[in-house]
Amino acid sequence: MEREFKEAPGHIRLHTVNDGSEAMDYIEGKGKFQNRHQYPTPDVILLDLKMPKVNGFEFLEWLRRESPDEHHLIPVVVMSSSALESDVKRAYELHVNSYMVKPVRWEDFRNRVRAIGIYWADHVQKPHMS
Question: What CA–CA distance (Å, rounded) separates 23 from 30?
Answer without folding.
Answer: 10
